[in-house]
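Quick one, tokens below. Sequence please?
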């Protein structure tokens, strides 16, 4: 257990630091009073049981976890609209505090399950008392609708261990299509939504100052 704690400590540090940095991006948009392409950011270190399950499933030896498991440290950035996703990816590409080593576009090429999301794998340097450690971290960027679907599907997956009964599988595929249509509809009225949000924010500011 102590060995796991030691192994996971730099991953925890990476998640904590990146949460501050990525949430900071959102705050900067708020200060500029510009539409933020980031709605919220979450992060987690993969639980030990999930690391073991995935290593077993993919045949990754435990002494190769550091180089072969890309999502021990994981961040999620949720965006209001589909077009915001590429904007966020571009912002990540411009940063010089980490290096992007892989991108996977499950929006253009959604998974068979119906899963949609944009994955960016980075190498992030963590400063430790024994020197710098470079870690793989996965950042998943998705809309609120994609996140809703993925969260529900993930919990059902946990229950059925990936072996969904046919009717549930069909329903999940239908729900994925509905989430896709929702994203499309929201994009069509994006201007209206943003105007309303700007109006609401100005009103909040005025009320605060009066
Ligand atoms: P958790 O609990 O989220 O940590 P692959 O062999 O392609 O499936 P790989 O190579 O690890 O897996 O890379 P991938 O697919 O880019 O990233 C895996 C992660 O993406 C998953 O982590 C999920 O977070 C998410 N994901 C991928 N496919 C699906 C899907 O069909 N449904 C949902 N809900 N999420 C998905 P883990 O390890 O599954 O678990």
């Amino acid at each position: 257990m102590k060995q796991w704690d030691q192994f996971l400590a730099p991953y925890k540090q990476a998640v904590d630091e990146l949460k501050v940095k990525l949430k900071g991006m959102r705050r900067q948009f708020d200060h500029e009073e510009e539409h933020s392409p980031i709605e919220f950011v979450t992060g987690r270190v993969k639980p030990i049981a999930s690391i073991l399950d995935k290593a077993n499933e993919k045949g990754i030896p435990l002494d190769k976890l550091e180089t072969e498991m890309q999502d021990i440290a994981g961040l999620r950035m949720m965006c209001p609209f589909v077009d915001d996703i590429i904007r966020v990816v571009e912002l990540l590409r411009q940063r010089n505090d980490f290096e992007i080593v892989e991108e996977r576009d499950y929006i253009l090429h959604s998974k068979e399950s119906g899963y949609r999301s944009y994955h960016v794998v980075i190498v992030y340097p963590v400063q430790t008392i024994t020197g710098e450690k470079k870690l793989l971290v996965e950042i998943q960027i998705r809309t609120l609708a994609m996140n809703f679907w993925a969260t529900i599907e993930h919990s059902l997956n946990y229950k059925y261990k990936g072996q969904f009964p046919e009717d549930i599988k069909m329903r999940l595929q239908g729900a994925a299509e509905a989430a896709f249509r929702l994203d499309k509809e929201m994009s069509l009225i994006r201007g209206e939504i943003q105007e309303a949000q700007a109006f609401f924010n100005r009103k909040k500011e005025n009320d605060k100052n009066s």
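The chain has one domain: 2-209. The helical segments are 2-31, 48-58, 65-68, 82-94, 144-160, 166-188, 190-209.
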